[in-house]
Amino acid sequence: MFIQLITQTNTILQRSDMCDPTRDDVSSQSRAVTIEKRAYFQRKWPLVDVVRALTVVIVHFLCLLAPFNYQWEALRFGLVLFVITTLSITFSYHRNLAHRSFKIPKWIEYPFAYSAVFALQGDPMDWVSIHRFHHQFTDSDRDPHSPKEGFWFSHVLWIFDTQYIKYKCGGRDNVMDLKKQWFYKFLRRTIALHIAMFWTVLYLYGGLPYLTCGGGVGGVIGYHVTFLVNSACHIWGSRSWKTKDTSRNVWWLSLFTMGESWHNNHHAFESSARQGLEWWQIDITWYLIRLFEVLGLATDVKLPSEFQKQKMAIVR
């Protein structure tokens, strides 16, 4: 019964592919504006949105229970889980898959992508597609998590409105490079099963302390660290580069985001494997990429040239 439920849920998630063609490019933007005006919470919620919302709510609920089930070993596990899954998101989903900032052998690429699954931010195809659309339509009506629609929408609410994203994206199919690989197709079909098995093992191993202090605390920190890049890094912070968007560099987030909060740097040089462009700008993801490069395992590592920097720099 449990396996059947997971299988049905996973099928629903697959059918909700945010990249499925729904409208041609001409009509998609006007349709997005129409949908934006409707009530968010009073709308009819498809099951996939309910599942996504319940996942986020349950993880937050488990985090709230952590003080009543405190165990240092479990909390330490949660912090390690946060570091591993967040670094996997930034290293794999973001810089390797979404932007192709560097190349690594498949025996390294696939394990990092698999680890990122447990950050509960979707499968690689889903995540990468949304992020590519974000850069394609940054801060416009078609941006999947546009800051123009408010802090909370860009922070988290956009995740629970898959129909809106479909209309915003138009008819583009922007992850064909991943769809050609069996591993990413496999993860898309089976992601719910992997997550369910992980949380089951977590409970069997450590009981409620590991579910709450471990999965709950680690999951909530990971969620909001990533969400803040979409929201806070388009509102607060400094700008060093002349980009056509509202991206900002937020220094105090850099350690927690593994270097992702140098967001103005990133939008200025999207394909750069390094986002902390100054020596003092902490970028843990770049340190890992650089390590693999020194070991001869990361190749075609992309960095902005001095000419590109001079062209984009804001003269003060």
TrEMBL record:
- Pathway membership, UniProt: Lipid metabolism; polyunsaturated fatty acid biosynthesis
Task: Decide whether keyword Lipid metabolism is in the record.
Answer: yes
Per UniProt, which keywords does this protein have?
Fatty acid metabolism, Iron, Lipid metabolism, Membrane, Oxidoreductase, Transmembrane, Transmembrane helix
Topology within the bilayer: Multi-pass membrane protein
> By its UniProt entry, which CDD domains does this protein fall under?
Delta9-FADS-like
- Please give the start and end residues of each transmembrane region: 47-68, 74-93, 186-205, 217-237
Q: Which InterPro entries match?
A: Acyl-CoA_DS, FA_desaturase_dom
Compartment(s) of residence: Membrane
A molecular function GO annotation: oxidoreductase activity, acting on paired donors, with oxidation of a pair of donors resulting in the reduction of molecular oxygen to two molecules of water
Q: Which GO terms describe its biological process?
A: very long-chain fatty acid biosynthetic process
**Is Secreted there in the keyword field?**
no
Query: What Pfam family does this protein match (any one)?
Result: FA_desaturase
Q: Where is the Fatty acid desaturase domain?
A: 75-287
An example Gene Ontology cellular component term from the record? endoplasmic reticulum membrane
Principal place where this protein is found? membrane
What family name appears in the similarity comment? Belongs to the fatty acid desaturase type 1 family.
Protein name in UniProt: Fatty acid desaturase domain
From what organism does this protein derive? Arabidopsis suecica
Highest classification ranks of the organism: Eukaryota, Viridiplantae, Streptophyta, Embryophyta, Tracheophyta
